[in-house]
What we know:
The protein is built from one helix and three strands; from the N terminus they run E-E-E-H. It is mainly beta.
Amino acid sequence: MNCIHCGKVLTPVSAGGVTVDMCTQGCGGMWFDMLELRRFDEPHEGAGEELLRFGPPHPVRVPSDRRLNCPKC
Length: 73
């Protein structure tokens, strides 16, 4: 599956018992399948901090004002 922002291949990474797809070689974007984000959206859960170690050293800022399609579709 490719990143919807920069087109690089997404890498599966595991954090907090959940595997998400992350753009580790490009912009640093993440793809959460249905209901996966719920495991990371509260500060007390701590799993979100674990995801930060997988990101690229210099994430790219991408425009958030355009509609993006699902990378699986």
